[in-house]
Amino acid sequence: xxIIVDSANLAMILKSIKNFYCKDETRLIYKNVRIxxxxxxxxxxxxxxxxxxxxxxxxxxxDNCNFIIPFFNIPKYASKNTxxxxxEESVTIDFGCYKxxxxxxxxxxxxxxxxxxRKCETxxxxxxxxxxxxxxxxxxxxxxxxxxxxxxxxxxxxxxxxNKNNKAVVLPYKLNEKDYx
Length: 181
Known about the structure:
Elements: E1 2-6, H1 7-17, E2 32-38, E3 41-47, E4 52-58, E5 65-70, E6 81-86, E7 90-94, E8 99-103, H2 113-116, H3 129-137, E9 143-146, E10 155-160, E11 168-172
Antiparallel strand pairs: 1-6, 2-3, 2-5, 3-4, 6-7, 7-8, 9-10, 10-11
């Protein structure tokens, strides 16, 4: 089976999940990514056992399938399209400038949809990622988030769980999609 993806889109996906796969040699299953192709979209999922990320884009050509392979990067001089050749036991990725082959990983990749699909009413909160990152960088322990769902003009308070008097950071947020514009 052949799957063709725009290399720039694939690079964007890999960049967005690169901090979510495990680099620890003792946790091998988390060094891999799950790739799902469904309804003309490719989704790549990464998890290091503590945090999870996935991203997707349209494919140019390909049939529905899924497989697990080690994390990879797009080479600097990749051609416009990247081609995945999916076989029963292996996946070869053709970047144009070179090819790389991986044996498919047989271990089970946990069902990430349990964590990402909601079955009840949810609230969406928007953050400026740069501000959020800076706020979390000031903590080196477990934190808790506190916010008022009835007041979309209030702020989120981030507090160190072990020493509530020591640090608290307040970040603005928005609750409703109409507030995003």
